[in-house]
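Format notes (please read before filing issues)

Several people have asked whether sequences and structure tokens are stored in separate files. They are not. Every record keeps both together, in the order shown below: the sequence lines, then the token lines. Line labels are part of the format and must not be stripped during preprocessing.
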Amino acid sequence: MQKINHFFWFCSGAHIPALLKSPTERNKYVGIGATIFFTGLFAAISGAYGLYFVFSGNPFAVFAAVLFGIIWGLAIFNMDRYIVSTIGKQGSGGKQFLQATPRLVLAILIGIVISRPLELKIFDKEIKEHLKHNYLGIQRARIDTLNNTFDNKYKTERGKLSQLKIARDSLQESIKRDRRDLNYEIFGNKTLETSGIMGYGPYAQRKEEALKVKEQQEVLLNEQIARQEQLLYERRKFDGLLSEKLMTSADLDSLVALAGFADRNEALGQLKYDNKGEMKESNYWAITFISMLFIFFECLPVFVKLMSTKGPYDDLIAHDEALIIYTSEKDMEAGLAVQDKLQEQKEEMGVAKAVEAMKA
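Then the structure lines:
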């Protein structure tokens, strides 16, 4: 426990010889040091997780993430240690708060930076599902855009095909009616279009000839339609529309696995709102409070130092600092006195030499 206490005292930036003389202050600085240590640890985890996505897919991604995480964690640890150790307890509470304000702002910024990657990990499953939805929506929008562009580009050809199909449908209806009337004519069914005389007579022969002409026209229309459809097919193939397909679940999983920090960060922000842009209260407040928790945790050492009362340790530090300043001033005065005495001796020697020179 003694080694652990000394380690956390070191983390707090306290002057250990002075702290050993103040038993009542030791636990306070153990708590401050532990808070700074775990803040640095969270920063290391956050930095490593964030950089892992930067090098995602690279064989050295894990090594680079761990190395950066250690460096980032040490940097945040050193910065927090400096922030807390430079907050003095001399002066009024308002003066101490003003002194700590720049450090508090810096702590808030650090808290925001280290909280985001950790939030991404906490909401990892929800982010993956949202990314799949986003990627699928992007692919659908891309296909729709390509189709709309193609339709506008080949509007004339598509209009011609549509007219040919309308003409063919109309002709097919006419052929159906003519076949029905031919059957009625042969079997003697009396209608407005048939004679009612049973047998294959002149009327039936004329109806059959007219039917054959229409069937030949249908064949020609089908050939024109086939040629027009083949033309549009080749154009679609040339423009790349045939290669554009909706992604499967396996494709979406692969894309999500390669998603970078920016995509995941954007997806996390979108989790707060639904498709209509309205706030999802459960997600919004959960993400917001988790961010505030990490920010508060980063600011906690500063708050603890500000809220703590002035103790024996602070008096010892103030006394040591005053003693150092007093000693430095005395040394400086002694040095100046020596310099003045040397200067006087030089001046006296100069006068003596001048007198000797005049006598000579």
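For reference, the curators noted about this record: DSSP finds twelve helices and no strands in the chain. The radius of gyration is 45 Å.
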